[in-house]
Write a structure and sequence with these properties.
153 residues; mainly beta; seven-stranded mixed β-sheet; two-stranded antiparallel ribbon; 2 helices; 7% helix; globular; disordered N terminus
Length: 153
């Protein structure tokens, strides 16, 4: 990966190992996320990643992601300061994900579909975002979710 080592702290999923601050998945706060896609509504029950430590860990090492599950990174960035371009990677993530980048107005800006497990390549939002939703790879296409759809939690 050609990103500077200093950028590692900005990339969710970019840690050197297990974080002592990480909350086990069974204890993670859950929230309901609804995506309005035309007349259809798609509901997910996802884990919340609010802190920098939770966002850096993301869904690393996870193989148990349910079809209606995932993780919501909100607020993004965790330290505040308003929306900014997001950059994620799949290092240490064995499950393919759809990474849904969400603007401050709640609309989907971009979807990185079927990301490659264990890839160190950056996955960028392409514009400033206020939240990011990760769901099981292939779910966005399967459900007809696309940029411009509205996301609520």
């Amino acid at each position: 990966m050609s990103l500077a080592l200093a950028a590692c702290a900005l990339l969710p999923g970019c840690t050197g190992g297990e974080s002592k601050d990480a909350v086990p998945a069974s204890q993670a706060a859950l929230t309901t996320v609804t995506i309005e896609s035309g007349a259809a509504r798609h509901v997910f029950k996802v884990e919340m990643a609010r802190t920098a430590a939770e966002q850096q860990r993301g869904l690393m090492f996870r193989t148990d992601i349910p079809a209606d599950g995932g993780m919501l990174f909100a607020p993004y960035p965790p330290g505040g300061g308003g929306p900014r371009e997001a950059s994620f990677w799949m290092k240490d993530t064995p499950s393919s994900l759809d990474i849904i980048f969400i603007r401050a107005d709640g609309t989907i800006a971009h979807i990185a579909e079927n990301t490659v497990p264990f890839s160190p390549d950056p996955i960028r939002s392409g514009e400033p975002v206020a939240a990011v939703l990760e769901v099981l790879g292939g779910r966005a296409a399967e459900l007809g979710i696309s940029p411009g759809d509205k996301v609520r939690w």
